[in-house]
Specification:
The protein has helices spanning 54-70, 72-79, 82-91, 94-108, 136-144, 165-178, 200-211, 240-257, 282-292, 294-299, 327-338, 367-381, 416-423, 583-599, and strands at 127-129, 152-159, 180-187, 190-191, 194-195, 220-224, 261-265, 303-306, 346-350, 387-390, 437-446, 457-458, 476-477, 483-494, 507-508, 518-520, 523-524, 536-546, 552-556, 560-564, 574-577. The protein has 600 residues and is α/β, with parallel strands linked by helices. Strands 1-2-3-6-7 form a 5-stranded parallel sheet, covered by helices on one side. It is elongated. Residues 4-112 and 450-481 have low confidence and may be disordered.
Length: 600
């Protein structure tokens, strides 16, 4: 079940009108999301390798088989070994070749851990379904990150006609600030009351767009459309074969762009009858898909489920079976019975009870009882380690046909289930975020040389500036003669996903591999200073070195290296990165160019 219609984007400084996006016709049957994850299985080994010996030939053949079943990346790595493998096969004995090959493979064929294989950090299951609106995020954070919780989950829909780079990057940036993990569900466009069928070009366009954004966390959760066993969600005529072909294509294409994508199948309407083409029951839809395209189930990373308390949304928290809040259990068991040999993490991306308040249907439960039911349901879901996240439908939809599912009323006041879940004790979690620190500019100023006594000298110094006051890893240096102190300023750009300074003062220590007879200060942001992705910050630093150390490369952890070829001639600032040639060097370079040209 999901809102339809209009884009809710608003400018950060001005709220737009309250229309609600991506809705579809409600039905008394309820809804559900679901499917599996995995890797393609290649049933053909590569061709035998010619030359000496069955040993290397057969081994390389089996290597190709292994790699193709595990991913393209490994094929590329092994191809780099082939020149060396040829040398081994012709110049070493069988046993030596086997030993060397075994070592090479143990080093080279280490499969990197993908996002789909590591969800050990996921300890906060609490989430909510939201509109693609900035105004929902503060309320969502209040609900999910309260009472010990952190980094709650969101399900949010992106339509193919909403691919606005700045709007979605702003949305992701606000998710980052509010500690919310978005699960992006793909959608097409409404046409005459139903959702258009997607095609490969639509998927490519959306995948490239989503890959261009800086996500709040490393793992990029994407749900491949919605309830395709309903005709109104699939171009008016549902087709299981079409869906699973596109599911396989989506998984392949998203993963080819970035291994951080985590592909989740569309949730099915678990209460749908079997009346094609308007509806296909979940059993038949899964069975037809498994028979036609079993590879699709192996290539996805997670199962989405719409485990609603059906029929009629008036079930209890104790009910079991396909049309209960335990519907995901039926899905897992049924897929296993079809032959799926894979343990899929579950994302309950739609669930919940509608309340009597705010709508026309009176046989729903009162809001107070709905709150107690959702509390019991969370108690149950929290005990199941297979469930990673639960995002009930819907945080803020107090108008129209889904008003009775809304957790906020028309005055933006919370219904009882909001307050109860907000007060519930939760666990925090810390999803991985990529860190990337880039040097954009560095300047240095040379101070006058100072004579030093011919003895071992400790280079600890005092500075009026707090950022220059600490030189870590200092040691007593044994060099004699004059030393040189250089002060500088370095500009760093945050090109990662984390916010510098969010978890305490942001500092970078000197890289451990800095040379002997050389000291470099730690660089730090001022207290309570935050630097978000794509923002830059300027840091003061100081170097103490011996003349004989030059040229020298230095840097801080995570930054890479800067090189000083020679000391600045003047006491004024000199840009050392990006490298800039002096006027004298420009003239010499020009004369060399003329000489080369005259020789030609």
């Amino acid at each position: 079940m999901d809102p339809r219609g209009y884009n809710l984007w608003y400018h950060p400084n001005a709220l737009l009108g309250r229309t609600y996006p991506n809705q579809k016709t409600n039905s008394s049957t309820g809804k559900a999301h679901g499917l599996p994850a995995g890797l393609p299985v290649c049933r053909q080994a590569g061709p035998p390798v010619g030359g000496q010996a069955g040993f290397l030939g057969s081994r390389i053949k089996s290597i190709n088989y292994y790699i193709k079943t595990k991913g393209k990346l490994m094929i590329l790595k092994v191809s780099l070994l082939f020149p060396l493998l040829k040398k081994i096969s012709f110049k070493t004995s069988f046993s030596v070749g086997a030993a060397i090959l075994s070592i090479l493979l143990s080093i080279t064929l280490i499969k990197p851990v993908s996002a789909a294989e590591n969800l050990s950090w996921a300890t906060n299951k609490y989430g909510i379904h939201v509109n693609s609106s900035f105004e929902d995020l503060p309320k969502a954070a209040e609900l999910l990150n309260s009472n010990g919780g952190d980094w709650g989950w969101l399900t949010v829909v992106i339509r193919q006609d909403e691919l606005n780079q700045q709007q979605w990057q702003d949305f992701f940036n606000l998710c980052r600030r509010r500690h919310l993990i978005p699960m992006i569900r793909l959608a097409t466009e409404l046409e005459n009351g139903y959702w258009k069928k997607p095609d490969q070009e639509t998927i490519k366009k959306t995948a490239v767009f989503l890959n261009s954004l800086n996500w709040p966390v490393e793992t990029r959760f994407v749900i491949i459309y919605n309830e395709p066993n309903r005709g109104d969600e699939w171009g008016k005529a549902t087709d299981s074969k079409e869906y699973f072909e596109l599911l396989e294509f989506s998984s392949d294409y998203f993963h080819s762009l970035n291994q951080d994508f985590f592909i989740i199948s569309a949730g099915l309407d678990l209460a749908a009858p079997n009346r094609p083409p308007a509806f296909i029951s979940a059993e038949i839809f899964y069975r037809q898909g498994f028979i036609h395209k079993p590879e699709a189930f192996e290539k996805i990373d997670g199962l989405a489920s719409h485990s609603y308390p059906n029929h009629g949304f008036v079930g209890t928290a104790e009910d079991t079976g396909k049309t209960s809040i335990r519907g995901y259990q039926w899905e897992l068991n049924y897929l296993k019975s079809l032959g799926l040999d894979k343990d899929l993490p579950v994302f309950i991306t739609e669930t919940g009870w509608p309340h009597q308040e705010g709508g026309r249907i009176s046989n729903y439960y009162p809001a107070e009882k709905v709150a107690r039911l959702i509390e019991k349901a969370f108690d149950y879901w929290n005990q199941d380690d297979r469930v990673i996240a639960i995002t009930p439908f819907i945080l803020n939809y107090p108008f129209g046909e889904f008003a009775q599912f809304s957790w906020l009323n028309q005055d933006q006041k919370p219904y009882p289930q909001f307050e109860l879940i907000q007060q519930t004790k939760k666990q925090g979690q810390k999803p991985p975020q990529k860190e990337k620190v880039v040097i954009s500019k560095a300047e240095v100023s040379r101070s006058l040389p100072q004579k030093m006594e011919p003895q071992k000298v400790n280079l600890q110094y005092q500075s009026e500036h707090p950022l220059e006051a600490n030189i870590p890893n200092q040691k007593t240096h044994g060099f004699l003669g004059s030393h040189i102190k250089i002060k500088g300023k370095v500009t760093l750009v945050n090109q990662g996903q984390n916010i510098w300074g969010e978890e305490g003062r942001f500092c970078l220590a000197p890289e451990e591999e800095n040379p002997e007879n050389f000291s470099l200060s730690t660089i730090c942001l001022p207290e309570k200073t935050l630097v978000e992705p794509n923002q830059e910050a300027r840091f003061d630093f100081e170097i103490v070195l011996d003349r004989e150390t030059l040229p020298v490369s230095f840097g801080w952890e995570k930054t890479g290296k800067i090189q000083i070829e020679k000391l600045p001639i003047f006491l004024l600032g000199k840009t050392i990165y990006p490298y800039q040639r002096s006027l004298f060097e420009e003239i010499i370079g020009f004369l060399k160019h003329l000489r080369i040209k005259s020789d030609i």
